[in-house]
User: What shape does this take?
Amino acid sequence: MAHLSKLFSTLSRALALSPEGRSFFYATSLMHVALKLLLGLTLVVEDSYGFRSLLAPPMSLVFTGGDLITCFVFSKLLDLCLKQSYRRAVHGFVLPLLALFLGANFIVHGHLKTFVNRGLLEFNGAGGEEIVDYALAGMSVWAIAFISIALFVAVAYSLAQPQLLRSPLVARVHLPLALVALGGCAMLYAGQLSAGQSGWLRSNPTYELVRTYTLNRAVAVARATPAEARSFATPKPLFGRYDSRLDVAVPSQRGKNVLFVLIESLPFEQTPLGGKSEGLTVLSELREQGVSFSNFRTVFPATSRSFLTYHCGVHPTAGDATVTKYDPDYRCDSLLDSLKESGYRTGFFTAPMFTYDNLHKAAMMKSYDVYEDFLTLRERVDTPMDAPAVAEEVVASRLLEFVRDEREKPFFATYFMFWNHAPYRLPNEDISQLPPYERYERTLGYLDRVLRDLLAELRADGVLDDTVVVVAADHGEGFALHHDNRNHVGHIFEDDVHIPLLVHVPGLGRHETARSGSNVDFAPTLAALLELPAKRSWQGQDLLASSYAPRPTLLFGRASFATNGIVDGNYKYIEYLDSGQRFLFDLARDPHEQTNVLEPEREKADAYRELIARWLPVVDYRGWAVSHEPSLPSVMPASLRAPSPEVSAAEPRTHPSLN
Assistant: This one.
């Protein structure tokens, strides 16, 4: 017993903080406690968690355990690294910065339910510039209250430090150790809770930022060599079952107008195509004349890389950031080039600032004849706006002007519908008191009304009957309906990557297909439909052709989670690079991915992992080489295509420009 007492005494002395360290520890801990208490209160009041949940103060103190430990470690490090004469000055300098850092985290958490991390700052389809814009526009009473408290603590600490050092609280050497021990117990308990129960409050903001910049380095991909890229053929199906049937030969739409409606954050299951009866009901009417796809995915669940894939017909680069983030002049063989070569006028229209990873500077976006986002459309709005985005009605009005400008030329108009993006707001109505999923459903209803009105105007102008309307999404969105998965922060579950694709062709009749495809196939499909010249670098195929050949779909994410995956017919493989977790799902039996069949099917899982290891470096090289080595052909040789297991009864669609 005496030995234990001596050991405890020695350990206590080694861990004890200096008087300055103890006062600094209390100040930083107080800021973090205020952060978690106020964030918990906002989740209770604004997101309907309820006052009986663990998030309600003072019960939400259980989520400050990790914060107390982080504050203690930081205080001890400063004690060890700084002489006593420097400590007060450094503490006084650090505290205001910490107050502002935590304030930024408070605002970001209110929007995205996560703290600032590498994924959000670098490559989650947003970037730091946009996060700052949204943070400033979304400043709330709660955020102002927290920042005021944190700054008050920082200022009070600097002004009253001599008195603090003489206070009985600081004199208690073992009190910080007791608080840390209590925090450790609280952290262990909080670790057993799901994100839904914890409201995403378990993590410490500083640790989250450091972790994603240091421990989460598995996102790096060794880019393939040119020789490796040239010799790599797009893989054939491995083990999965595919359904390649299409019961119609879609006639050429050469010279027809195209309205490409790309919708933010829209999973397949949240549309009528996926069985939902509310929300975007206009899609039910559009599919009565056209082809709808039930097996279409985005290869990357974030706006910037998804947008690049739609336009360029290639997989995006597989590194930390979208290539346009560090190479704004990135060029590709864009679908827009083919359209303009064939006499189309092109326009892009969206409500927000379209600064996702510098996409607004990219050559592929600059090639639009007309480019309208918040920075130009705000001039059309007289009333004050509470977000850097105009109402969808303003966007639709400008799009109609574009359509009516030059009737003698066909148009290609991209309408990126935005207002169902987190935090799911409406431009002219406050719905902040509703739970997130209800807010999201309300925004879909809003988009439905705007899109209906736009189509009605086109019909009245006599334009709609000569227009192919394509509806798709940039990525999905998680609402913890099937997983502990919210927003689109790097998971590649079906909520995140399974998206709608509807090609409305006037007079065609209703047709549905389970053909598997991704947004890599968008440019080749539309080019074939319009008889446009195809580009050698495009990596996809025409999803409407009788020569369609099924192939696996590569998936990857690089946001809060680093993930890779493969969809091979009914099989879907997912691996988390940072944690080492692996999953294999049979989507035919388990569409919501609830049962991991990896153990009994380990041979398949290992084959998929090996395929990803060979494929991803080639994807990264080819995505980069489109701009830097445009002579590299990226299309898959026809001789390597897998034969379709289902023979279509439709006649072949032949387009000389593609042969």
Summary: The CA atoms of residues 280 and 448 lie 5 Å apart. The two ends are 86 Å apart (CA to CA). The first helix runs from residue 2 to 15. The chain has two domains: 13-214, 226-658.
